[in-house]
Each structure stands twice: as C-alpha cells, then as structure tokens.
C-alpha cells in the first residue's frame, strides 16, 4: 500500500542549478529513454551511457551504426503503440538485477505544421492530422503509466530512488500553436498531478529552441536569424543534458519544472521556472489547490 503523503509535493523554493553533480550515482542504474536515437534523446542516452548506466533506447529507428555506446540496448518502439512501449519496459526490467527501472525519461516527440489550423475556410472542413498530440501527449502518457507500474511493483525501493523525467517544452509556458502547445501543456498537468503522489520523484524539462543535429542547416539558419532579430538565441544541447543529469542524481528534486534557455539569461543554460506554484499572495488559488487534493468523487 502506498503512503501518498510520504512524497507529497512541497514548494521549498527554486533549485540551485549552479551546484556540482555527482555522476557516480548513475553507475549501475537502469534507464529507459523514449526517442533516444536522435536529437536531445540521443544526447541523454549518450550521457547516461558514459556515466555507467544501462540504457534502453526505445525509438522507431536505432542509433547510427558508426556510433558505439556501452551498455545501450535498442528496441523498436512507436510510442503511439501500447504494445511497443510495453515491450520496451519489459526489456528494461530484464536488464535490471532487481527488475526496477531506476530512471525513465519520457522524451519522444515531434513538432511540425499545425494541421489543426489548416483548411478552416473550407466549405467541408476535414478532420485534422493529430499526430503531434498523439505522439507528444498520448505517447508520453503511455510511457508515464508504464513507468509508474514498474515503480509501484518495487515497493522495496523508496520513492525518492525512482525518477521520472518528462520532457515537455517552453511551449507549455508561452503562447504558441494549439496542437504542440496543448500536448506540452498537458504534460505539465501530468507532472503537477503526479508530484502529489508517492509513486516516484517526477520533474519536467521544458526546452527552448535548440539546434540539434536533426535540425537542417537551412532551418537552423532561418530560425537563428529570426531569434537574433528578437534579441534571443538557441539554447544548448549540453545544458539540457546537464539539467536531466542533475534531476537524475539529486534525490531532493521533486515536482519542479526546468526551462532550458539561452545562456544570455542564465550561465548554466537552464533554470527552475517557478511557474507551477501559486504565489503566496494568491490566497484564493492556494486555498482551492489545497482543497482539491483532499476531495474527489472519482476513483
């Protein structure tokens, strides 16, 4: 039986992102990353591997053949498929001596044109392509549900030693496009709901625009020029990696969201966003938040 008060979220103030990280804590850990063959996902997989963890990469394609990483196991996985994800978690559990998957990173996601807003002037409006929502939100929720299942089946390990990292986007915090924004905002809601349970530590990372290898030079050039006109810039892959490693190794971090941002705003390239807590002078919402955690007519 879970004690849901044991890891109940408490706002203890922002996390100091300038302190050192002890990567030795990752040696021997079992980690599952969705979408780990390219972009930020690959950077996470590589970092965990180099720190001595066993890593399961669940993606629709494997890492390039010329890349050799120690302790990394690939499984073909379309995150829209419950069966594929279940197979990935079974593989990860089989690679752990105890069966516990220590760290799960719900990373897989896509972006693109928002079909929700296309063809709105048609006499016979068509059903929109909802792949962004299905992959970025529904797929991530499959990952999260399977992670919670694995965590709950291993009560012998304390909740603070079980780590769930949800990769969203700063689109969850700023006005943007409906499909991508709603998917990422939905993940923010999931994190906030789960931080009040005793399943595991749960945190969220929200990257700004990042020039990863999967972004073509042409796109990077256009986007980079547009950002420059707005006195902004790209955030850095290595800063997102550092943030994820910090969350993975610091058992005191729980229920927080981190923005991966241009270094002009923070030298570490990431900050505790402090956007998921009601301000002390917001008495109404603080009261309603406390109340809703104590009442429910649903199971």
Q: Would you summarize the structure shown here?
A:
With 299 residues, the protein is an alpha/beta fold.
List strands and helices in order, with pairings.
Layout: E1 30-34, H1 39-50, E2 54-59, E3 72-76, H2 82-94, E4 103-106, H3 131-152, E5 163-167, H4 178-194, E6 201-207, H5 217-229, H6 237-249, E7 257-260, E8 270-272, H7 283-292
Parallel strand pairs: 1-2, 1-4, 2-3, 4-5, 5-6, 6-7
Antiparallel strand pairs: 7-8
Explain what this protein looks like in three dimensions:
The protein has 299 residues and is α/β, with parallel strands linked by helices. It has a single domain, classed as NAD(P)-binding Rossmann-like Domain (Rossmann fold, 3-Layer(aba) Sandwich). The protein has 7 helices and 8 strands; from the N terminus they run E-H-E-E-H-E-H-E-H-E-H-H-E-E-H. It has helices at 39-50, 82-94, 131-152, 178-194, 217-229, 237-249, 283-292, and strands at residues 30-34, 54-59, 72-76, 103-106, 163-167, 201-207, 257-260, 270-272. Strands 3-2-1-4-5-6-7-8 form an 8-stranded mixed β-sheet, with helices on both faces. Helix 1 (39-50) crosses helix 6 (237-249) and helix 3 packs parallel to helix 4 (178-194). The longest helix is centred in the middle third of the chain and has 22 residues, at 131-152.
Q: What percent of residues are in strands?
A: 5-15%
CATH 2nd-level architecture: 3-Layer(aba) Sandwich
Mean pLDDT: 95
CATH superfamily: NAD(P)-binding Rossmann-like Domain
Distance linking N and C termini: 16 Å
Question: What class, by secondary structure content?
Answer: alpha/beta
Give, in spatial order, the strands making up the sheet with the most strands. Answer: 3-2-1-4-5-6-7-8
- Tell me the domain tally: 1
Helix fraction by DSSP (H/I, runs of at least 4): 25-40%
């Amino acid at each position: 039986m879970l004690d849901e008060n044991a890891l109940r979220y408490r706002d203890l103030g922002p996390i100091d992102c300038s302190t050192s990280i002890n990567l030795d804590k990752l040696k021997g850990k079992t980690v599952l990353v969705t979408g780990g063959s390219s972009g930020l996902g690959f950077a996470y997989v590589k970092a965990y591997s180099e720190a001595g963890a066993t890593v399961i990469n669940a993606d629709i394609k494997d890492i390039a053949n010329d890349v050799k990483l120690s302790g990394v196991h690939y499984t073909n996985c379309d995150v829209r498929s419950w069966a594929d994800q279940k197979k990935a978690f079974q593989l990860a559990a089989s690679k752990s001596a105890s069966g516990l998957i220590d760290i799960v990173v719900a990373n897989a996601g896509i972006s693109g044109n928002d079909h929700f807003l296309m063809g709105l002037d048609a006499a016979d409006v068509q059903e929109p392509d909802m792949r962004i929502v299905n992959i970025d939100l529904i797929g991530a929720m499959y990952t999260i549900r399977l992670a919670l299942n694995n965590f709950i089946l291993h009560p012998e390990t304390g909740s603070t030693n079980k780590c769930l990292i949800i990769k969203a986007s700063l689109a969850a915090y700023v006005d943007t496009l409906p499909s991508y924004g709603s998917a990422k905002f939905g993940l923010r809601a999931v994190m906030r709901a789960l931080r009040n349970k005793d399943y595991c530590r749960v945190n969220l990372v929200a990257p700004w625009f990042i020039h990863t290898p999967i972004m073509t030079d042409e796109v990077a050039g256009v986007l980079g020029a547009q950002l420059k006109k707005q006195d902004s810039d790209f955030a850095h892959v290595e800063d997102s990696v550092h943030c994820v490693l910090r969350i993975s190794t610091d058992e005191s971090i729980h229920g927080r969201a981190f923005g991966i941002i241009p270094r002009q705003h923070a030298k570490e390239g990431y900050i505790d966003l402090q956007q998921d807590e009601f301000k002390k002078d917001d008495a109404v919402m603080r009261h309603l938040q406390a109340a809703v955690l104590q009442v429910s007519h649903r199971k």
